[in-house]
Amino acid sequence: MTLTESKTHQLGISLNNADDDGNVDENIKIGLEIHCQLTRLDTKLFCGCFSNYRDIKPNENTCPICLGLPGSLPLLNKKAVEYASMMCISLNCNIPEKITFYRKNYFYPDLPKNFQITQYNSYELSSIGYDGLISYYNEKVESDSEEKSKGKTVRIKRIQLEEDPGKIIYEENNSKINNYCLIDYNRAGVALVEIVTEPDFRNANDVRLFLNKITNIFEYLGVSDPNLEGAVRCDVNVSVKGGKKVEIKNISSFKDVEKSIFYEITRQKTLSMHEISVKSETRHWDEKRKITIPARTKEEEDEYKYFPEPDIPRIVLGLDYREKIKNNMPELPIERLKRYVDIHKLSDHVSDILINNKKISDFYEESLKIYNSPKEISNWIVNELLSKTNELEKDESPDNQSNKHRGFISQVTPQQIADIAKLIEEKSINRNIAKDIFGKSIKTGESPLKLIKNVEIEKIQDSETIRRYIGEVLSNEKHLIEQSSTNPNVANFILGKIMKKTGGRADPQLTLKLIRESIEHK
Ligand SMILES: [Zn+2]
Predict the structure, then answer these.
(1) How far is CA 322 from CA 95, 224, 232, 318, 330, in A?
(2) How far, in Å, CA of 350 to CA of 347, rounded?
(3) Contact 46, 189 (CB under 8 A)
(4) Which of 349, 375, 418, 478 could cross-link with 370 by S-S, CB 3.0 to 4.6 Å?
(5) Spacing, Cα 69 to ligand 1 middle (Å)
């Protein structure tokens, strides 16, 4: 095979894998390890240092416990166990009666203790969650009627609670050798939940949908804000045609997760096409070059020499723990969806759009509290607000839906949406004028009510004002009164004149009624 042929083949493979039509390649297996920080906690997992390390000077958010100094003892954050349990329940995992922490031993500069406190299921089932299952929709498949109700599911192997390591910051220069790196332990000890899936994904698009779905759930639970830098990181493992599994480590954007999968599938297929066997290895995602590169040789599980953490006793949650947590959980997106469809009588489609972003859903709920009209309010949010915002921000990366819509939320308030919905329902302004006002409101940040006043497009419903206009017309064209007794169209003719004078703002029914009264009394 010539080089060109090989490249064409490679391109062919790449296109096949692009899988934008929802095609499934059964030869591909993709599994995920998602690390999600519990960013809503006040403190770290085993000490009183702040959970939010982001705005603190390097190495100032540390204490003897998270630095692992001799004599210090970890104290488990109870809230972290509760938050992690909520995540387990939302992904339909079991929670064991007892949980145990283990030491995972390895030497790496980001780990001040030279071990990480984590969970381990080899000796006993002791991680906070196991055997879950969650369904997610492939929107592109969803539009196909045959596939519509199928959805897709992924099995969750386990969920474990562990501490985040510190951060290594590499020297930025152009030489190939890094002479030094900087270490910041502010993040060391922050509570992290690791979610391990079975290799149930077949393409990158599904992975992206799944990640969006679960991070949305975590936002609803109020345990984690996925928009914070580094709050959600993924390891991805990919194997093609029953070949060896390759793990790509520590990717922090969902867009890059998707790209790295495309790249890795193409790489592995090309290797096997040339009869070169794929090595089982760990690779890194090079964000700049958009390729995966080999990483340090990965330790085998037994090289970590796991043993139970002697400083934390086994924690007995009890048999009814899951039920207790479940009963006090915030409303999940799926529950909210059901409420929108069943009680608010919104369509599946509209409800889906609303719940897919907690900020938008909350915005809808806030607007409803001010003016209770689910149909009108949802219509304004979905058909005007979101479509306008999408138009305005079309060239922005779609990677982060929340960021994408943050713009409008800062400009338009629930009060404004409620006001405009009310004006429409009370027929104070017509829909076209309202839309116009709305577009301006999003661009300028001005309140719709103020804009309406500014351009004086409020409907004229005041009888006195309308009578004045009628008087003006009749005094200029006195013959109209005479004609009115024989010609029934005169009233409409006068109405036309008044509409022209008022720029269409006069209430037509009221005006016509008043015209008839005036003509009869003359
Ligand atoms: Zn600390």
Answers:
(1) 6, 20, 25, 9, 14
(2) 5
(3) yes
(4) 418
(5) 10
Burial 180-198 (b: 16+ CB within 10 A, else e): eeeebbbbbbbbbbbbbbe
Q: How far is the CA of 39 from the centre of ligand 1 (A)?
A: 15
CA of 420 to the centre of ligand 1 (A): 50
189: left (phi over 0), alpha (psi -120 to 50) or beta: left
Domains of the chain, first to last: 30-235+300-316 (no CATH), 331-455 (no CATH), 463-521 (1.10.10.410)
Check if the beta carbon of residue 514 is closer than 8 Å to that of residue 463. yes
From the CA of 164, how far away is ligand 1's center (Å)? 12
Q: Which residues of 15-25 are buried (b: 16+ CB within 10 A; e: fewer)?
A: eebebeebeeb
Q: How far apart are CA 207 and CA 212, in angstroms?
A: 9
Q: Can you give the pLDDT at residue 479?
A: 85
- 480-500 residue pLDDT tens: 888 888 888 888 889 888 888
CA of 111 to the centre of ligand 1 (A): 13
pLDDT > 90: percent of the chain: 54
Q: How many whole angstroms separate alpha carbon 459 and alpha carbon 432?
A: 13
Q: Looking at the whole model, is its pTM more than 0.85?
A: no
How far is the centre of ligand 1, averaged over its atoms, from the C-alpha of 315 (Å)? Answer: 21
Tell how far the Cα of 172 is from the centroid of ligand 1, in angstroms.
29
Q: What is the DSSP string of 301-316?
A: GGGG--EE-TTSPPEE
Contact between 83 and 223 (Cβ < 8 Å): yes
Ligand 1 centre and the CA of 127: distance in Å?
A: 23
Q: Within a 10 A sphere around the Cβ of 108, how many other Cβ atoms?
A: 11
CA of 101 to the centre of ligand 1 (A): 18
Distance (angstroms) between ligand 1 centre and the Cα of 11 equals 50
- Is 369's pLDDT higher than 90? yes
Ligand 1 centre distance from Cα of residue 63 (Å): 4
CA of 77 to the centre of ligand 1 (A): 12
Distance CA 360, CA 486 (A): 59
pLDDT at 404 over 80: no
Ligand 1 centroid from CA 68, angstroms: 9
